[in-house]
Amino acid sequence: MSYSAFYQESIQQPEVFWDKEAQLIDWHTPYRQVLDHSHPPFAKWFVGGETNLCHNAVDRWLATQADKPALIAISTETNTEKIYSFAELHTEVQRMAACMQSLGVKQGERVLIYMPMIAEAAFAMLACARIGAVHSVVFGGFASKSLATRIDDARPVLVLSADAGMRGGKAVPYKPLLDEAITLAEHKPQHVLLVNRGLAPMPWVAGRDVDYASLRAQHLEAQVAVTWLEANAISYVLYTSGTTGKPKGVQRDVGGYAVALASSMKHIFCGNPGETYFATSDIGWVVGHSYIVYGPLIAGMATIMYEGTPIRPDAGIWWSIVEKYKVTRMFSAPTAIRVLKKHPSELMKKYDLSSLQALYLAGEPLDETTSSWIASELGVPIIDNYWQTETGWPILSIARGVESLPSRLGSPGLPVYGYHVQLVNESTGALCGANEKGVLAIKGPLPPGCMQTVYGDDQRFVQTYWNNFPHEQLYSTFDWGIRDADGYYFILGRTDDVINVAGHRLGTREIEESISSHAQISEVAVVGVEDQLKGQVAVAFAILKHPELAATAEGRRALEAEVMAVVDKQLGAVARPARVHFVGSLPKTRSGKLLRRSIQAICEGRDAGDLTTIEDPASLQQIRAALAA
Ligand code: PRX
Q1: Any atom of ligand 1 within 6 Å of the Cβ of 363
Q2: CA-to-CA distance for 99 and 158, rounded, in angstroms?
């Protein structure tokens, strides 16, 4: 079938289309209705059907490949490598599930997972899925305040964590940050289950903290049956940044997500049972949820969980993994490839990469230089794919499993089946023609696998995502895009205050709030500025309560370091601005709105744009002067 016909069916007859795709997974009870779109923009898929993500990822494969690798946990930080077969994974997940149940976790309750990239983190996610508990994984790079906000929103009964992660040969303690977060949070989890890796000392809170190794030892023989869940039950909540300082809990279902992942593994990622998949992301991000843990396992593939950097012990490490485990499909981010590009490519050439069939890249714009370089080094197709935490799986890509259409440099490709993608004029809501810039929007219903709502806040879901255009209720991606005459899309950056640092999605408002908590700061603007390596970096412009503190270069340096330390402590080093400049005023409109776009433009050496509404043009001069100094 041509991709065009495949796509058209998905849009014109979504029920017929997804009914077929739904056969890719196991159902315990068949669904009554493929789609219930009676209360738009909410979409319910596979209504009445009962299934389970853990069953489809693990138990389902026991009959045919119990002894085949399922989870390959590699740490170049602790120099450990362990392969879990599907049978072993099944055993470990049941042990973990029994531990959770013994601590009182019940169906529908939340379990927060704040863990490094170790096998236990995957056991924990799958164990939650097995018993119908809702997991909320928080990226290990986030610090206490970020964590506390998420604890208060998700209200977990249990938190899973570890003494420490490791990065670049150094232990990164998790437990003290977690303890501080729980102190800061209003909600107090009943228990904290801790994996002790022996990397960092762990202060212990009696009555609350539980040692995983000891508890697991009591549940070695555990058999925990799968809890069958209605397709629209909540599988997880994953927080992501938006326009406000308060992160949104992206809530996902069970059945639609399982179907979307199985379908994307077949048509986009082309993975087959028995093969090995290697996604280099982290379980704290959506790519880790969809394509480290659930997607590959649902497809019966072995999945690699990697703790370490791309360049330690040297820049050949990932390729040595590809060779050793005969990886067929790999998924990474452009930033990682740009990092590798700075190292000698002989390190890559040393290895036999003949198993590799394609490299998928996502999370940030893929520039042509990086794309061409890695394509020529690897000699396999490089497949850009564009999507969001909210959608859970690609919106734009080339579904080579359907038809091997050519890619186009700089473009993630065509709308993926199921997504009725439109480019819309921001103010008039009119559809854009070819080569006309607009906001990338999606006409509802969103396909299976996408967010159901904002956790605990339906109104915010509707308000934030579906209320941005004058004439019609459309889902906004908050990305600018353009489409060429052949229908290929190009992403031109965010329309909101979200920035993308090394593939990590961050909200500038969150960073501003954190910086403002420094006693000397009266006001601050944070913008994302283009960066050769990381795609973007955060740059802050702050007004001091006592400007004289920044009178000398030394004073400025000391304050800048202090501000960075505040962000490190509250949000984590991932959110730390690359520079903090001190200015006397910030460019604003006459109604007091910060002109972030103009600041960003000046930082990137571009024209400051439309300044008809600016209150004080001299403030722009201050930005320029700060940059020049
Ligand atoms: O701005 C787009 C950018 O990353 C945002 C979503 O980030 P996140 O929620 O972390 O999900 C990442 C899932 C891969 C998008 O709104 N983005 C993501 N992929 C691409 C991209 N920008 C350009 N090209 C891409 N392939």
Answers
A1: yes
A2: 11
